[in-house]
Specification:
seven-stranded mixed sheet; Rossmann fold; seven-stranded antiparallel sheet; globular; alpha/beta
């Protein structure tokens, strides 16, 4: 059992939980994740480790509440417990040891970019972070990222920072400055757009993928993605890959496969679901 030691609302549907997991806190590296199992009959949820504190034995999880299971998780309060937290899983982030790195976070992806910026700064790499949200209230982890370098904030409506998408700011930076590597985490359209910007410039670009994941060991095959015309499993081969070789069309299609099931699950939790099952067939 893993106790929740602190809880904080970061945006309208994003919550931070600091959870006691001593051994994970001591060995986790940037880019790695855990699989959370709230109770015996709950869904297994993969979550990136946004931060850790070995001294207190805590890891930081940032959860976007979009379905039944994530809503149940963020409903917990400090002092309550999570049954299982398995990890750290996945490959650590590919780090450079000198030069200039651009870390890009869109929405809840900003929390995933945080440990990357943290790790780069630790070895002396210059870090510029570009983060975005729909409006000011959706921008997260700005102050945390400022500890590691310059932060540029973008909002779709211009209510905070500069108006526009993160890709607009990224394009300007790439035109003016030498960037040795780009890390992009966020919605699939954003990561694809960033990869398209950097491909012609020859700037190595790493993206963190979020396909459907169940067991975290590669056994279920749910998290398969196509990278460089090869089938990879995000849980054991990733979750980070070369953005210039990812098949984003396939990834986007697979992410929408279970949408009808997710919507029905939420409706049933509210007592408004239909009895018949969705007809969608998983790819």
């Amino acid at each position: 059992m893993h106790q929740i030691l602190a809880k904080q609302s970061l945006s309208p549907n994003v919550t931070r939980l600091d959870v006691h997991a001593q051994r994970i806190a001591e060995i986790r590296q940037a880019g790695q994740f855990v699989i959370v199992h709230l109770n015996e009959n709950s869904e297994r949820i993969p979550l990136t480790i946004a931060d850790s504190n070995p001294a207190t034995g805590t890891i930081t999880l940032v959860i976007q509440a979009v379905g039944k299971s994530t809503n149940e998780l963020v409903a917990l309060n400090a002092g309550e417990f999570i049954r299982d937290v398995a990890g750290p899983l996945g490959h650590p982030t590919e780090m450079i040891t000198s030069g200039h790195a651009l870390c890009i976070g869109g929405g809840v992806g900003t929390a995933v970019a945080h440990p990357i910026a943290q790790g780069l700064n630790k070895v002396g790499v210059r870090v510029t972070s570009v983060i975005g949200g729909r409006s000011k209230e959706w921008v997260i982890f700005e102050n945390e990222l400022k500890r590691y370098g310059n932060v540029i904030v973008c909002t779709d409506d211009g209510s905070y920072g500069r108006k526009g998408f993160v890709t607009d700011a990224v394009k300007e930076i790439l035109a003016k400055e030498k960037v040795d590597i780009v890390y992009a985490v966020g919605p699939v359209p954003m990561m694809r757009a960033v990869a398209n910007l950097t491909r012609g410039l020859g700037v190595h670009t790493i993206v963190s993928l979020n396909p459907v994941m169940i067991d975290g060991t590669g056994m279920c095959g749910g998290c398969r993605v196509s990278v460089g015309n090869e089938t990879k499993f995000a849980c054991v081969d990733g979750p980070e890959f070369d953005g210039h070789t990812v098949n984003f069309d396939e990834l986007q299609d697979r992410l929408s496969t279970y949408r009808e099931f997710e919507q029905r699950s939420v409706a049933c939790a509210r007592g408004t679901c239909r009895m018949e099952m969705p007809t969608t067939t998983p790819a």
